[in-house]
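Title: Prediction job returns without error message
Component: structure pipeline
Severity: low
Priority: P3
Assignee: unassigned

Description:
Job completed but the reporter wants confirmation the result is attached to the right record. Sequence as submitted:
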Amino acid sequence: MCLVLVYLLSFTYPVYSLPQINEVVNGQADYHVDGNTMTINATNDTIINYNGFNIGSGETVIINLPDSTSRILNRVSCK
């Protein structure tokens, strides 16, 4: 039993701290995570509630909006 536990603990898995989307409350948004990169595609005036919005070292978050006049509200709630 101890050998199995030591064997399982010897593997390391990447832990990412990317944003945790709770819900989109206005507009439309979808997201995709590929490794350590999160891409969010949103419409103008989108409001997204997050449970957390952390970006760790070596991580990237890309937010795509329709044009340069578009806006987004990223709201983080700390519960």
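Comment from assignee: result matches the submitted record. The chain has a mean pLDDT of 86.
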